[in-house]
Write a sequence for this structure.
């Protein structure tokens, strides 16, 4: 085990009554890493995070942050971490500024730092707006600012972009990248595979309380033997012939397009070239979402 790791988790187990939430979870997160925890609803992501954060006690196994046990709760560790939870727990009826100043007071950090964080997440112009009147994206950014006000080294973000429109998500991605680029370790859970692929250095895919795979997104994509999709014009080539020629591929067709999904696209491309069927050809490489679906063997339920 790497003693300098930001997080080291060994064989975590947790049951709730007859439900096994965690069934032996182990992983490490290096300092400065952007790490993603991915998995379907009920996979055990939140339970894992809560144990690592010291909010929940495991039945067995151990979680360390910066080499120190998360349980029992340790005030020194608490000061070094920032937590943004799925449903931001704001103090009611406060303005955005009052909210973050309250957090600054709790952590005994100077008030000026609260104003700086509000500016850093682009909310200075909403300082006097009450938290319940913020948009979803603004509320998420305020929650992140509150989690960062005491300048933690390790930041936990539980589905920070859930429910945001595409533009707000992209804006938040820039903020998350900045947080990591400033030297902080970031642990993210998300149901958006494109988000994990764009942001995370490494991801762990968890299901039924176990880690199925852990590594850089590109490695997982390669390992999962996910398919490449070659999309040709239906008028130029016959789907039946392609099926006979490439039995390992999945060939689907509609009125205009034929989609050949294959783990080995090179011979498919050669065949289409030989048949003069390259016009308007589209090739789509495998994504983390493909790898995820291959690994978890089910539709993604966002
Ligand atoms: N406090 C609790 N009491 C009883 N069962 C619980 C409790 N918390 C979680 N569970 C169960 O443990 C399992 C793992 O839940 P967990 O919240 O960790 O999953 P998750 O991956 O975070 O899911 P989601 O993506 O929906 O947030 C689920 O079957 C869930 O129903």
């Amino acid at each position: 085990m790497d003693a300098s790791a930001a997080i080291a988790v060994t064989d975590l187990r947790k049951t709730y009554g007859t439900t096994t939430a965690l069934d032996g979870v182990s992983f490490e997160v290096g300092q400065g890493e952007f790490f993603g925890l991915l998995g379907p609803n009920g996979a055990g992501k939140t339970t894992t995070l809560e144990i690592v954060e010291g909010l929940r006690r495991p039945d067995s196994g151990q979680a360390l942050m910066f080499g120190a046990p998360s349980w029992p709760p340790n005030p020194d560790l608490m000061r070094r971490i920032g937590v943004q939870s799925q449903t931001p727990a704001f103090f009611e009826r406060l303005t955005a500024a009052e909210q973050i100043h309250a957090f600054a007071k709790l952590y005994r950090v100077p008030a000026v730092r609260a104003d700086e964080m509000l500016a850093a997440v682009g909310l200075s112009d909403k300082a006097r707006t009450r938290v319940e009147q913020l948009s979803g994206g603004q509320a998420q950014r305020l929650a992140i600012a509150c989690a960062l006000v005491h300048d933690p080294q390790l930041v936990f973000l539980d589905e920070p972009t859930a429910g945001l429109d595409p533009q707000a998500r992209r804006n938040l991605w820039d903020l998350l990248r900045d947080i990591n680029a400033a030297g902080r370790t970031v642990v993210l859970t998300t149901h958006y595979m494109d988000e994990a692929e764009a942001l995370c250095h490494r991801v762990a895919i968890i299901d039924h309380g176990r880690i199925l795979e852990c590594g850089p997104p590109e490695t997982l994509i390669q390992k999962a033997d996910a398919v490449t999709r070659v999309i040709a014009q239906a008028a130029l080539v016959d789907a039946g012939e392609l099926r006979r020629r490439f039995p390992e591929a999945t060939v689907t067709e509609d009125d205009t397009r034929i989609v050949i999904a294959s783990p080995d696209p090179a011979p498919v491309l050669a065949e289409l070239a030989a048949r003069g069927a390259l016009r308007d050809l589209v090739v789509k490489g495998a994504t983390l979402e493909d790898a995820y679906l291959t690994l978890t063997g089910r539709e993604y339920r966002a």
